[in-house]
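Exercise 3.2. Students should predict the tertiary structure of the chain below and write it as structure tokens, then compare their answer with the key that follows.

Predict this chain's 3D structure.
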Amino acid sequence: MATTLTDGAFERVGPFCDVVDDKAAYLEFLDKVVAKLGDYAVRTRRIADAGSAVYAEINETFVLDGKRMDFPEVLAFDLGSDGLITRVQVYMMRPDEGTVVGGGRAGPPGGGPA
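Answer key:
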């Protein structure tokens, strides 16, 4: 994975607006996070290529505290002129937390009656 990231200016913006602004720090961050997760996998659902930006819709799955977790995400990648990734932004859905907006099959926070 390290070979896909630029050695120049790099930024990763996470789902909590957390920022990692260095390639080495990002690789270390990933190593620490993924190492703690059991049965970790990423399933790619689709990829959209917009030239200098690429979007990947994925599902990140793992076991945490004995519970299987599945997080739908979109990763937005900015590419430099050399085709290497200069920026990653993570957009994550959190399906087990309920919703504050009703509609469709959505329900109120906590999953109680609508």
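Discussion points: Residues 2-96 form a domain with the Nuclear Transport Factor 2; Chain: A, fold (CATH 3.10.450.50). The radius of gyration is 16 Å.
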